[in-house]
Structure formats: C-alpha cells, structure tokens
Design a protein that fits this description.
By secondary structure, the chain is α/β, with parallel strands linked by helices. It has one domain: Survival protein SurE-like phosphatase/nucleotidase (Stationary-phase Survival Protein Sure Homolog, Chain: A), CATH 3.40.1210.10. The chain is built from seven helices and 13 strands. The model has no long low-confidence stretch (mean pLDDT 96). The strands form three sheets. Strands 3-4-2-1-5-6-7-13-8 form a nine-stranded mixed beta sheet, with helices on both faces. Strands 9-12 form a two-stranded antiparallel ribbon. Helix content is 28%, strand content 25%. Bound molecules: manganese (II) ion. The site of manganese (II) ion has 7 residues, from strand 5 and helix 4.
Length: 248
C-alpha cells in the first residue's frame, strides 16, 4: 500500500513525524508537507507563483505552498504512483465543528478526497503534543481498520483524539460536526512604529456540542470520527429560493 502524508503545521512538526512512523507499519510512505506552519490555510491553492519541492534530511519533501498545494502536486505529477490512501496531521490542536472550514489539516485530506482518494485527517485536541503517543495509537487503530476493511465509496474522515491518558480514552465514536459560536472579536493593537495592526481572534467556544457531535465525543473522552462531504448545497433552501426566483 502507498500512503501519502501531509499536514498544515509544516514538515518539521512532531505530529507529522509520528504519523509517518506509524503509517510505515502499513506500507510505503511519502511525506509532502508545507515548509512552514500554514494552519488556517483552508483549501487555498497557490496560483500566483511557481512552487518548489525540496527534500529534508529525513526524506520528507517540503513545498513553499499550502497543504492543498502539497497534496495536489503530489497526486497530479510529483509522485510516480497514485497513492492508495492520503493521511493528514497529526495536527497540533483540535479540528472540530466549524474549524473544518478553515483547517489546513482537513484541507490536505479534502484535496486527496477531491482527487478520488480515500483520505483521513487526524488532530490532537489540545496544542502542545502532550499525549501524542495516544494520538498515534488511535491513528494506528484507524489505519489498521481501514487496511482490514476499506470503506466503500469516496471517503473523507475527520478524526479528533482527546488529550488524555490512554487508559481514560473510551474508544472510537462516529459523530457529526458540531458548531462554534461566532468568532471572537479581532484584537486591535499597535506595532512598534505606532501603526494600528489587527490580530484575528481565537476560535470561540462550542455552541452546538450536544450528544452526537464531535465536540461532545471528545469532551467525553472518545476519539471522534466524522465522515465529511464537500457538497455545499443548502438543500433546505432550494424550495425557498425557487419560490423567490419565480415570484413576480
Ligand atoms: Mn495546524
């Protein structure tokens, strides 16, 4: 089995090293990842300049582009063979609910999915890589399950692992995405030269976080697995918009 791995934290991150190590237990691994932290890059492609691919001492390939660039480049020309599986992560911090829209970790997996490959994104709840060993363990379980019994149809899975000791993790739970509150306010500040600058504020807390959501599962000590799709159509609005368009 050929496995392509990317992330959004950069090719040097402990999370991607750990994921590559565990993936090697299952097959031939190629890492193509951004040269710097591109968290929050979402699904952006670099179209205004060419991209370069360089090789790190450990064999990881790194690109001066986004997570989406990395997977796109790898699958559409850089790799000699089409991978059988695309993995992303292990991200430094959760990607649940609305985070999935902004996440570069999820975006790397999404690009694999859009190119017709089964893809899985892994994120560890709290930043700082404490309990990375637990995340690795569950990544192994998910990959193992996949190898034994691949899911049918196009597959994009978003996996979030709680930051806690292995003994207290309760297992895998299939979830749907929750929702966050609207974003916190931007932070207004001044740079050392006195100019006004703005920082995007932190993500807000969970709003829709009841049973069945990824937020709830992870909070309760479960590893959440949310199958994702990329059809943005709002089906419940179609009749309304039809009526609105037809009205005189
Ligand atoms: Mn990240």
């Amino acid at each position: 089995m050929r496995i392509l791995i990317s992330n959004d934290d950069g090719y040097f991150s402990p999370g991607i090293e750990a994921l590559a190590a565990v993936a090697r237990e299952f097959g031939e691994v190629t890492v193509v990842a951004p040269e710097r932290d591109r968290s929050g890059a979402s699904n952006s492609l670099t179209l205004d300049r060419p991209l370069s691919v360089r090789s790190a001492a450990n064999g990881f390939l790194y690109v001066n582009g986004t997570p989406t660039d990395c997977v796109h480049l790898a699958v559409t020309g850089l790799l000699e063979h089409r991978p059988d599986l695309v993995l992303s992560g292990i991200n430094d911090g959760a990607n649940m609910g609305d985070d999935t829209i902004y996440s570069g970790t999820v975006a790397a997996a999404t690009e694999g999915y859009l190119l017709g490959l089964p893809s899985i994104a892994f994120s560890l709840e709290r930043r700082g890589y404490k309990h990375l060993d637990v995340a690795v363990d569950f990544a192994r379980q998910v990959i193992e399950r996949w190898v034994r019994r691949p899911l049918e149809g196009p597959v994009l899975l978003n996996v979030n692992i709680p930051s806690r000791d292995a003994e207290t993790v309760r297992g895998l739970q299939v979830t749907r995405l929750g929702r966050r509150h609207h974003a916190e306010q931007v932070v207004r500040d001044r740079n050392p030269r006195g100019d006004v600058i703005w920082w995007i504020g932190p993500a807000a807390g969970a709003r829709e976080a009841g049973p069945g959501t990824d937020f709830h599962a992870v909070e309760q000590g479960w590893v959440s697995i949310t199958p994702l799709d990329i059809d943005l159509t709002c089906n419940r609005q179609i009749p309304n918009v039809e009526g609105w368009v037809a009205a005189k």
